Amino acid sequence: xxxxxxCCLLFIYSCSTRSQGYDPGKVNKKATQFYSQxxxxxxxxxxxxxxxxxxxxxxxxxxFVDAYLSKAGLYGELKNYxxxxxxxxxxFALDPKYSHDYKLPYSINLAGKGEFSKALAAVDEFLADxxxxxxxxKAAAYRRxxxxxxxxxESSLKSxxxxxxxxxxxxxxxxxxxxxxxxxxxxxxxxIYTRRVRNFNEDFFESRFENGQWxxxxxxxxxxxxxxxxxxxxxxxxxxxxVFTGCNFPDGYGNCDLYFSILTRQGWSLPKNMGPNIxxxxxxxxxxxxxxxxxxxxxxxxxxxxxxxxxxxxxxxxNGQWSDPENLGPGINTAGDESCPFIHADNQTLYFTSNFWxxxxxxxxxxxxxxxxxxxxxxxxxxxxxxxxxxxxxxxxAADGRTAYYASDRDDSRGGLDIYTFEMREGVRPLRTxxxxxxxxxxxxxxxxxxAVELVDLSTGQALSRVQTDEDGRYLxxxxxxxxxxxxxxxxxxxxxxxxxxxxxxTPDSTYRIDIPLQPIEVNAAVELKNIFFATNSYTLQxxxxxxxxxxxxxxxxxxxxxxxxxGHTDNVGKAADNLTLSNNRSKAVVDYLTSKGIAADRxxxxxxxxxxPVADNNTEEGRARNRRTELQVIAL
Length: 637
Fold this sequence. Notes:
It is a single chain. The protein has four domains: 2-155, Tetratricopeptide repeat domain (Serine Threonine Protein Phosphatase 5, Tetratricopeptide repeat), CATH 1.25.40.10; 167-428, TolB, C-terminal domain (Neuraminidase, 6 Propeller), CATH 2.120.10; 432-520, Sandwich (Immunoglobulin-like), CATH 2.60.40.1120; 522-637, CATH 3.30.1330.60. 24% of the residues lie in helices and 28% in strands. It is built from eleven helices and 34 strands. Strands 2, 3, 4, 5 and 6 form a five-stranded antiparallel sheet that branches. The longest helix is centred in the first third of the chain and has 22 residues, at 134-155. The radius of gyration is 32 Å and the shape is elongated.
């Protein structure tokens, strides 16, 4: 920042020939002495002391235009846009010709305050000067483009009534040094962030939300913090896995690599490098785990990308390793820098920073939403005042989709960067979510089974996430509201589980428990196929059945000795003979699908039972619905 101030201060003297009114050579000598002292303070970065000396200079000579201009520049550096504007306007009033070249920084401070129309008028006045140099003209043209964008953008936001009111998280989290890069667990009760300890070493700290307030933060326990720099971290939703950036570590592939640490009973484990599949000789940073821990987004300076810094994603493989990273493509990455990815708990909304996509100046925050076909939509600027003329950084949003956290050096900072929280504007919020937790267990022994739980949107057949349970079979997942889901679990030695859960009308931000029993594969073992659908009185398979049928195909391919029978059942409505025929035809329809996918016919059989084997009371609609079912039964191994 200092060189910018010095340039402005020195530039004042080069402008004296532009004016016939104000003459710097006739300024009161005492005022110039204070002014010279102020410049020295500014060079040392002591901006407030410099402003105090500028005030002394102006007290000695109230027409000291240079002092007003320099004071305005200092307030601009402190992001006190109102006082910066006020001092520029005092200088313009004293001698508009002498001060003309300051219309550009004046416009920037107007934009900093959100007065984009005035900023546009000021920069147009600056550009109207025919003697303007090429460098100044390019800088002004860049600013003008951002002001025009801001005016157009704000016209669509004014009706929202949104109030941006960041709240400092206070002394429990923030200190006299810088805190930044917040990360949050799914329950919103654990905040992990980076603190610049002793103003040079980056370490991780943790604060917990208890009894309605954030507790005093502490350094992370275990072996994760060191004399090296650890920062730019992401924590898994369950709080068990931390992926972060380690710079200049002895085992690094480049100057900054991605590392991971696991929470143990003794605290966080020694960090491990994520390996050459992810890390390169270049720079990798800003990791973000997807809510199901299957995808890891991060930023890299790999020159094979589209620009200086690009966003990539790597996928966790069945063997626990990570795939080769994939560039997120030109719909997100540009010739500029994209960084700080954050994928929300909905697993559909991705936030990131960019200095290339049109914005307000510097790095702006954008979002893209995942489309039904799995691609990403168009980047959308989050708008002012979330974005400003300054460089924006990492942003995280709680599971509720409303509560956001970010780092800033606002005027109420306790020192350097502080962590703030604010409410997101409605139009740029992620999808509302609900939480599902449960346990996968052996149906016969009730023992927990480590497994992968796949969740599919029933309306589209799109797999939304795949969650790995812990060693005891426990899982936690967040899901977008307004959808019905299919839960699939496959584990070697067990029949697959497939559950249809109508969560469309469930309340957002609430928790539901779904325990999942797995039936060991053995003769006569049976499992209900809950996601096989037929229209009333029809045996034509509906398209929504395909997802489960394909899982059944995989089960049979994975177990080539397995022979099964598909059993069809109905309720007792209508004639018994008709129900028997319908159940026979429905079970046969499933077998026909399986043979069409290459399963040998001698491994398959079907049988209809009509209404003869109910599992619930046929006197209620709920009971009749349970009785209308399709089952898989093991005949031989």
